Amino acid sequence: MQKPTILVTGATGKTGSATIAQLLAKGYPVRALVQRVDARSEALRERGAEIAVGSLEDITDLRAAMAGIQRAYFCPPLEPGTLRRATLFAAAAQAARLEVVVVLSQWLADPHHPATHSREKWLSNKVFEWAPELDVITVNPGFFADSYMAALEPMAHFGLMGMPLGNGLNAPPSNEDIARVVVGVLTNPAPHIGKSYRPTGPRLLSPEDIAAAIGKALGRKVAYQDVPTKLLFQVAKSLGISEFVIEELSYFLKDYQRNSFGLGAPTDAVQEVAGVAPEPFEEIALRYVAMSGFGQRTFRSNLTAVHNLVAGLLTSAPTPAEIARRLKLPTLNHPMLAADSARWRTAHVPDGAV
Length: 354
Prior knowledge:
Blueprint: E1 6-8, H1 14-25, E2 30-34, H2 39-47, E3 50-53, H3 59-66, E4 71-74, H4 82-95, E5 100-104, H5 116-130, E6 136-139, H6 152-158, E7 160-162, H7 175-187, E8 196-197, H8 207-218, E9 223-225, H9 229-238, H10 243-257, H11 269-274, H12 281-292, H13 299-314, H14 320-327, H15 342-348
Parallel strand pairs: 1-2, 1-4, 2-3, 4-5, 5-6, 6-8, 7-9
């Protein structure tokens, strides 16, 4: 029996590329939607994926990408316009009569959240829910294990994990475990239609636990330091991180500090859907450090790390409110972090778990 062809968007990204690798390993034909042909898309083609070049903003591209497709994974980027892309994708998927769409949502999704992306993720979920004759499964991970790796350079060279996480807890999932849940519901959708799954790691970790695990992977002691958000944003700006990501991160970090990512975790989503235990963070850190190359410290890499640190310290700190005004992001009269919302807790945390 011929297996259904599956469309994957965000194909060269963190969960998209892992999803494609796992689907191909299971013998499923995959069409990867990419923005452009480059080394990353060529790597996917060499693995066996069919490459479709197009935009999530163009209905013509989406219709072409869905021609002959039976199932799809919708994985939008962290950029302005999430709701618009979701609406276009839902319309194209419905017209193409897809069997099922798996949607990557977000743990903080809520109509009252101050982060535009979180509100648009909530609205996107509603759009897919309202689409008639379109079966949908939602995957809503929290703070990825991969997110800590953005600070690998100072951890490797200075033994310092400086992040404004407060005392928040997290059970961070790997990109690969998130993909395992996506692949599990794509390949066997019937039992999961209309459900939502939150992949997590196997146990809650403090920032100190995370720093220690990354230090072990790096072969050196790494200490956690709770630094001002302003300092993180100086470094992020100097490294070319987009203004939108910085502005949204300002709210995500506030929720992290209030333990929003620790609520309701860990879950059994990876075991339930994929049939395997979720990866311990120690194993994830070992793999990601090996992939990064930061485990090998040289005189030249030390100089680069010092240069980047000094450049960050000398960069003027971006102000999230100024970014929001410049990008003309919509604001709320009554914003509420997930941690402060009884409505969000009721919708996201089963049985009032804390």
